[in-house]
Amino acid sequence: MSQKDSKIPAWIVTYADLMTLLLCFFVLLLSFAEVDANKFRRIAGELSKAFGVQRDIPAEQIPMGTSAVFDQFSPATPDRTLLDQIRQRSMEERPQLESLRNILDARLQQQVRAVAQQVEDLLKDSIEEGVTQVEVDHKRVVIRIQEKGTFVSGSANVTNEFETLLLDMSEVFEGLPGTIAIDGHTDNIPIRTRRFQSNWDLSAMRAALVANVLLLNDDLSPERLVVQGFADTQPRASNATQEGRAQNRRVEITIDLSEATEERGVRSVEKFSPPEASPPLPGSEETLRQAVEPLPISPTEMSAEPPTANEALFDETVEEVSERFNPLFPD
């Protein structure tokens, strides 16, 4: 069976060359063209509308739908205004609470310094002799008693003069709030006797003896006293010299007023702060609204300025704190 010879016409080669040149020409024109973005968007939008392309729906036109799952099992979303109200109240109260804390802390520091001054007046003679020192450490008053003139060397027995001074101090302590810590310290020279096996025994025994003398005052509660012995673990000076060892042999009485003052401060802040609302029940928008609803204010209170209210609250707080210091601050 013979097969016909297929032959490409001669004109098809010329036609292909022309089409290739035409394509290159349009590509060259496109490379030199400048596209106007605004005009391009406008034309593209018109073409989209003409061909029925779905347009974007703005956010404010999103259709609202409901879901049976969220309606039954999800709490109601609170109004934006309620969240704004909670945030606004928190921002308004924060600077007032900080101001109250600062004012109260300053007044309490003043009270602590007054206590220290009262103790210094009582120990004036022994301070001048270098036997005792009084320091203020934040909300604590530290009375540092050296061994010289108070204890017999190497013994826990106190002198008669020091015992009388301790009894006078107990009368001051009974009118003060807070705990009273009595700490015994020694130098690094070891001691070993029939009564004291080490410096631990000596330091603890001296602190305990001071506590026993203070408790001769029946008005001083034993629950307020804390007795500790530290031996030579907390030196104040170098044990290499005789003077340094003399400074390390001491008893420290620390009046801690922080618990009493902080308790008063917390009560004052709680008075100033609005009561916390109970958590709303799921799905109850009315419960959430009641939780953030402001307290009713009378016309007289509305006319008063906030600083006046703060001053009134501060005066009330100061009176409460001062009641704990009545023996030191008579009218």
TrEMBL record:
Biased composition, Basic and acidic residues: where in the chain? 261-270
Keywords recorded for this protein, A-Z:
Cell membrane, Membrane, Transmembrane, Transmembrane helix
Q: Which domain of life is it from?
A: Bacteria
Where is it localised?
A: Cell membrane
Where are the annotated segments for Disordered?
257-313
Tell me the protein family, please. Answer: Belongs to the MotB family.
Q: What is this protein called?
A: OmpA family protein
